[in-house]
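Fold tokens
===========
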Amino acid sequence: MVNNSVDEQVSHLIALLNQNDTSLNAFVSNLQKLTALMRSPETRSDLRTEYWSPIEILAKEGRQILVKTDISEDELDFITELLRFLRNSCGGLCENLNFVLNNNELISFSKESLKCFIPKEQQKEIISLKISIQLFGNALLSSEHSKPLVWSYFFRENIFGHLLQHKDMTIRECTLMVLFNSLTDENIECIFSTVEGHKILLSVTDTLLSSPIDWGVLFIEHLLNREDFIDCCYATLPLKNRLLILDIMEERLKNIQDDHSFSIPGGLIGSLKNLFLQNITQICNMKDSDIEPAETVSMLAILCSASICDAYVSILQNSKDLLQTTVETLKCIHLLGKEGVNVFSSMQELKHQVDPQLSKDIACHPLYGFKKNLIRLIGNVCCGCKENQDLVRRLDGIPLILDCCKFDAKNPYITQWCILAIRNLLENNLENQAVIAGISATGEIADTKLLNEMGIQIHSENGKIHLNSWPFASRN
């Protein structure tokens, strides 16, 4: 049964069109009533095919207004209300949407409205622009078949590029919604392989640096489903944008054990590991240069998070160059830190605990947590892997880690991570346990309390050194 309210309003609209010199305000008033009716799914479905004829006439009139140099207040109100009606009528209803998409007058009006208002700066014009974007957003949510049309217009006409640089953040948010919902495998390939696609990625990350909009984060996460993201897209971004990508990766990896809706391909972790190995060689040169370590520090944190995920353990444990480089880097910065006060020196004073500003300054240190995470990664990739345990021993990594086991405000919980790393290095490895026993026998480590905290007991019996160990912890 046709809803009388819709029938009456459409009849009234037809009557207005048949009158001479009907004011735009009269059309606006009628459209406002129809738009209100379109908020309800029941009345929305009552828009029969013949009801669209007067809307087509209004759209044609709207297109003539849009080409004018100066649009009056009344004309702007008319355009805005017609866009609202189209947006509401297409919400969740394929029949209405298909009619709009397949009607040249209506779809042309929608596209031309969008392009017309992009450069405008008045608040009412920005509202009209937002409604235009929402109209295409409703199209995407109502039908999968609308994706090619929306993507073709927004991508090929550089609409995405213009909108994602708009000064109004709500415009960017609506655009990100359209961008994410228009993604297909083919469209993602455009992001990866074209200059225009790289510019869109840059604009998205620029927006996220200003405001953490969920649609933008979802877009980045979708791209991270591709294992070639590092090779194709990552290097095209400035440093601050790359750091944002790394933050998103790390956050998702932290939650991956509980949330299986998002995962990062193993190939992407492998590519990140290779990039980390390229960058980490510069860290030891920081003492006498202005090298920016933030990217390498973030990559290390990600590898630490990945090293406790079952999906990535084998990738990292099988990378002997990763383990060797990590141990050698730890040795380098630890020795440099002992040469005097420099960027690698530890901070063992406790005064930062009662001085909030000093504590904040320490947290902003370029290598904050780096040394701790080197030890964390070593311990994790050695867990249950004798080959890696043996490699660390041959690199003299065991006494190195023991020597790092001191309070350092720049590396919170470094003592605990050293303890875990030593426990993982000694697990079922008699050769490594003998190293600890030998160190104690020669008196190089006199802190038996520290050894006890590690689950290690050393005692002498008949002139021989014996070592007992408690059950070992797993990766963390």
Summary: The beta strands are 456-461, 464-469. The first helix runs from residue 4 to 18. DSSP finds 27 helices and two strands in the chain. Residues 405 and 415 are 5 Å apart (CA to CA).
